[in-house]
Structures
1.
Amino acid sequence: MQKIILIEPKPPDYHVFAKFPMPRLGLPVIGTMAKNKGYEVRIYCQEIKRIDYEDVFSADLVGISTTTSTAPEGYHIATKIKEHNSEIPIVMGGAHVTFLPEEALKYCDYVVRGEGEHTFLELLEALENHHTVRNIEGLSYSEGTIPIHNPDKKTHFHLDSLPIPDLFLIQGREKITVAPISTSRGCPFHCNFCSVTPIFGKKYRFRSTNLIIEEMKQNRGRDVFFYDDNFTANKTRTKELLEKMLENNLCPVWMAQTRVDIAKDTELLKLMQKSNCFIVQIGFESINPKTLELYNKGQTVEEIEESIRILHQHKIRVHGMFVLGSDGDTTDTIKQTIKFAKKNKIDTVQFMTLTPFYGTKTYSDLEKEGRIFSKDWKLYDGHHVVFEPKNMTPFELQVGALKAMKSFYSLWRCLKSFWSGKFFNAIIRYWGNRTLKKWGKNHKSIFAQLKLLSNKK
């Protein structure tokens, strides 16, 4: 066993980040670990470069990492490989198959559940040496027709045990214009619709500052996107990293995901501004107090408004993320949300529909109530309605979310941004306007199906 091919399937549809394709870091980390063990490794991120199946068919093992919406494409890829050569072992991982390993085992030989880096390497070693896989924690497989699920890994490993990912393993790497860097895992919060905590736990773990600085040195000259689910969950540690970046003159344009509570820490905001923070992505989720409570968000509408104002004072742009369709929302909530976004001059937004990802509390609650009407995983991307909202029809939620996006990314608002010298906002709004027109045109059948479903209720 020498040649390992790792694949990240493409999303099934247009999505908010389609213009700037970036790989998730699970496969580059695993690929680097395998490369360091002497294996020949290549990674295909299908959104970045088409899969060379002749290359894949010559592999000794194939790994496929999926989200919920990319799982069907992952299953299709696995089926195509098996049809060509059923002897090639196929391993699947990612959040979706972690929660639904038996579904995945219909298409692959092994499922790596949860954090899979060390499990994958243990599996490689076992297969190469013809050892049993029964003792590998976090692994699922089949014996005949019987699915076997080894126990979960008992403890979370230290993140410094993982290498700096070698992005040169990714085919078409030259198309990646922003360096993705992960500095932590886990989140101390537990939003009901989010799968981060079920996968990584509430304990917030982070890599050592020196290791992150070394990774940034390797990516010197490139913008950086810190991939953390919450870059500032431990503010003391974030300040330490930013101070180290300033000491080492490592201040590229950078972006990160965070929460509204950063607005309460002036020292942190000054460091973010000084170290060249360009934009932060914040999960505001809702401007409806009842919805914030239902989501278990732990923030208020006043805090949301204040955070936008203070971030703008520090010359930091804001990408606001909203999730529409909770049991506290109505069609009027959607209208009020778009008014709020415009009034508070949020730079860019995404209005997503509530998506009940398997393994979350939202999924279990809606499933118990019989309100999920589609298990077509391709639709689980935040852009499609797959459940029955409480205070509106599925059709009204789908139309409302699209109208909200179109209103925010209108050509008039694009021109206003251009005239006021906000060229970044103008470009994003122009691209958003074009993408939304294409999305609406290509999804007429979805709207027709939802309208029919809604009329039956």
2.
Amino acid sequence: MRYFLFAILLLFGAPGADARQFDVVPGGEGLAATIAEASAGDRIVLLPGIHSATAVTIDKPLTIEGRPGAIVDGGGQGSILLVETNNVTIRDLHIRNTGVSYSRDFAAVKVENAKDCLFENNLITDVAYGFHIARSSAILVRSNTIHSAFTDQTSSGNGVHIWYGNNITITGNRITGQRDGIYLEFLKDGRITGNVCEQNLRYGLHFMFSDRSEYEDNVFRANGAGVAVMYTKNVTMRRNRFEKSWGGAAYGLLLKEINDSVVEDNLFLDNSIGMHAEGSTRVKLTGNTWDRNGWAVRIMGNCEDCVFHQNIFSGNAFDVGTNTRRNPNRFEGNFWGDYRGYDLDRDGVGDVPYHPVRLFAMLVEKNPPALIFLRSAFVSLLDVMESVAPALTPETLVDEAPLMRRPK
């Protein structure tokens, strides 16, 4: 059998045996001319130095990669690499300097109507958009660093921008200084894992109409407003960190009209609002930790059938806030740092129900400037009065089985 296979290889050639490699030197014929000369399946290697390139179209399956020190510079003239076919790989390049346009989406790598492409281990700096991917599927964006230093949202773009896509994975990237770290619109079956998005001007992650997607093990830190999840169903968000989103309109996570989804084992730390939810239904929130936030959770009256189970609330100014006395959601078996009940039968569950909505939180909801009195003796008196005889806080927003010990 071994000799038979060897004979076949001699007769027909080994797989990929006809693929060629082109080495591109700075200042030579250039990347565009090399692509024109290459055939499908060839490899193009950019040698160290600065390669000037603007609107270079990749219209055949190719691998384009760089040796250490290879820089593709757009000269501030627009999008740099334009991918318009399938099976393209771009790796190990430093791509920089798209310039800014207020009417066109300049990107380091712009992809349209493509599938089965890989973009990995690239350093992308001083660009409006890092990756702008439209009407494409089976794309992997992996282990790239995208960094710009924009100061206003108008002139900036997103680190990874997806518009109409299927089966796209964005993993292991680090994105800073863009408008949104990752922006997704009309994406189905997306997987966003292991990314770090910090100090972006607007959102670390922003997505709309992106059903059946998973967001796991990401870090969203010190972005303008945190993460916004809108108009989507069947979303899973697990083991993410939402940190240091501070400001009057900032939150770690916004859920707006999200249905049939899971928020599990996430950490919300040091945010003005840990999570804000409105118009959302049948969301299961389990194993999350809200620690040292202003509001841990703000859940509006138009949310229904959301379940909070085995979560941890600790060190927050307000554990739960709402804008109504109506409560169509369920809180059960959570740990509350401010709970002062007792457990006579020692089953680990408090014998006294816990009402997590403070009267003062309801007052602040209707009159935000009242927050200045948060640490006053008057507010402490309000809390005592409401705990003895609840009258204004939501009567049914109660945890009937609060945990006595913080889960590990």
3.
Amino acid sequence: MYKRIFVPVDDSQSSNVALAEACKLATALGSELRLVHVVDLAQFGWGGTEFLDAAELQKSVKESGEQVLAACCDTVKASGLGVESKILESWGDKIASVLINDANQWGADLVVMGTHGWTGLMHLLMGSVAEGLLKQSDIPVLLIRNSGE
């Protein structure tokens, strides 16, 4: 069935709920898990940072992403599962595209991710990585909504 489960993570409660579901699935199915976290480095690479050290800001963003990823990996390992992880870099690309490209390269057969479930103005302003991923993916996607967010 689903032997390679791809799980995008961030530091949100929705992501944590989705990670817990992915762990349940991996345990039940004997699946491999790959956790990824996307850092958007473009915001510090293009103009407007004359008074800031762009390289230092990019390094800080990566380190923060690595901390998020490490905490999520610890959660998976505490469940008794093995896990691999990767920081993905975006240079202005749509995050959904970055995720789908990596999921395809890894050979994922299921994507499990959290969604905020925003509607209306909040959805219009913030967009939705989950929605973008659904539109682009040929891989089955399981969206986990956290109603508490």
